[in-house]
Amino acid sequence: MDRFENLDVPRLLLVGLTLSTLIAVGVLLSTSSTAFGVSNPSWEGTSSLREQAEAVDSDSIVVTNTSEYARVDPSSSVAVVLSPERPYTTPETADVRTFVRSGGTLVVAEDFGSHTNPLLASLGVRTRVDGRPLRDERRYYRSPDIVVAPDVSEHALTSEVSQVTLNHGTALRPNGSRVLVNSSSFAYLDTNRNGSVDGTESIRTYPVVTVETVGSGRVVVVSDPSVFINAMLDRPGNERFVRSVFSGHETVVLDHSHRGDLPPLTAAVVAVQRSDLLRGIVGFVGIGVVALVHRRSRGN
Q1: Which residue ranges does the record assign to the DUF4350 domain (predicted)?
Q2: I need a labelling partner for 217 at 20 to 30 A (CA). Which of 17, 165, 199, 294 fits?
Q3: What is the pLDDT of residues 256-272, one digit of tens each?
Q4: Where are the domains of the chain?
Q5: Is the distance from CB of 206 to CB of 174 less than 8 angstroms?
Q6: Class assignment of domain 49-255?
């Protein structure tokens, strides 16, 4: 207590400013503004997915390279790929294919990106993402572009799910894959993107979630990556859907390998987690710091 009493006001202000600066820098280095980013806590980020995994007693890990799929047991893991920003190379596709064919569950969500259909084709999945905006003038949340899909099939992946809500999503072409969720019968694909139904646009049911067996595993395709973002988890049915997909898996793999760079601090934490050498160094430094503090406290 005497130590704090001896500090004058300018020193206290300096200490407060220093602590505030350190906290601000820490936040800056550990968060991201990248859409669908696992370190992005804003509305378009997916930082809440870790909480969803924890809610169903699953561990979650972030991978920044597809080679890291080998770290998990495929038969007890589900991996999530959201709208990749660049193509998967042949070796990267092989890593993902090995994971799935060895018993892993892979969730791929896409709306308008150009790199997902080639990935699905390379994995041997028949479903394709249509890419045209899906709208529904009857079953929607606040806007016809925020489609509520109420037609849910009975399946382990949709347990207790009654609907899924899309945010400016699209539809899927199953091509023989099993459809898990359909839109209502009042939906249509806005081919010319004019926000209304034209004579050539059909009003009917459209698939928005499919599943297909590949080897010993399965691939789930969702027609909108926004289903998984922070803001949309509160929309009708989405949290229940995400938890149902995660449930029963020991590990949830959040694949950030094709979504841009992680924030520096988060990248450092991920690097330490996957390296025995770095974990050892951090542990050694931590023990040294504790010993130094203890020695100084005894000296005082």
Answers
A1: 39-244
A2: 165
A3: 998 765 444 444 444 44
A4: 49-255
A5: no
A6: alpha beta
